[in-house]
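RECORD TYPE: inverse folding
INPUT: structure tokens
STRUCTURE:
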């Protein structure tokens, strides 16, 4: 099949990837693994309830399917140090690579703050949108469930230098109702009341610190973008 399609498209057969589709709605279903002895009849699963033409999608690749099957394609959204979605970075790495290898590649493509920590955190967002599911760095990227939406941020100095009496909590954005989350959750350092003078942790001062963490304007920070803590 790859040879026939490649000949028609004038594209190397080894650089084509095929995906089956759902018979009822035509949505992409599953990627076909490379095989030398599998027939089209075996690939197609006929539906006797709603008979229709079987559709197989093809994708032109820049690398061979052999190389792709030993590697993992990932996209990472970079939020910098101010919790703002700045850019998206695609990677194709060996499945045996660790998350810290991904971090090292990412560090060469993003802008870090001049006097910052130079440390990067890679994470997923929990389903409820309230917390980060942080990777330690030792996870093998081939074991990360697919599909996955990955984010990365520069770890603030305040967080790395947090003392024993400080507490690092999760903060998230919501609109009117805490169930209506949006944006990317972030970490925030909370300090005890007695240790914050001359800037005690009043709501105004806490919001001011959050504003610095998320680089929001006064109107947006105090009026239209409440935060929740978890």
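DESIGNED SEQUENCE:
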């Amino acid at each position: 099949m790859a040879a026939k399609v490649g000949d028609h498209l004038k594209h190397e057969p080894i650089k084509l990837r095929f995906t089956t589709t759902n018979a009822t709605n035509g949505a992409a279903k599953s990627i076909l693994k490379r095989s030398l002895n599998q027939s089209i009849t075996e690939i197609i699963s006929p539906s006797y309830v709603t008979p229709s033409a079987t559709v197989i999608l093809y994708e032109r690749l820049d690398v061979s399917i052999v190389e792709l099957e030993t590697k993992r394609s990932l996209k990472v959204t970079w939020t910098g140090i101010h919790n703002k979605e700045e850019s998206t970075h695609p990677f194709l790495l060996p499945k045996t690579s660790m998350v810290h290898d991904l971090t090292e590649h990412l560090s060469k493509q993003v802008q870090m703050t001049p006097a910052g920590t130079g440390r990067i955190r890679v994470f997923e967002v929990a389903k409820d949108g309230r917390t980060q599911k942080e990777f330690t760095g030792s996870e093998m990227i081939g074991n990360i469930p697919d599909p996955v939406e990955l984010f990365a941020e520069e770890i603030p100095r305040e967080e790395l230098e947090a003392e024993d009496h400080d507490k690092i909590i999760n903060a998230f954005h919501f609109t009117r109702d805490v169930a209506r989350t949006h944006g990317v959750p972030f970490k925030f350092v909370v300090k005890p009341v007695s240790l914050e003078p001359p800037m005690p942790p009043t709501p105004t001062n806490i919001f001011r610190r959050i504003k610095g963490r998320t680089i929001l304007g006064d109107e947006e920070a105090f009026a239209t973008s409440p935060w929740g803590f978890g």
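NOTES: Residues 96 and 180 are 37 Å apart (CA to CA).
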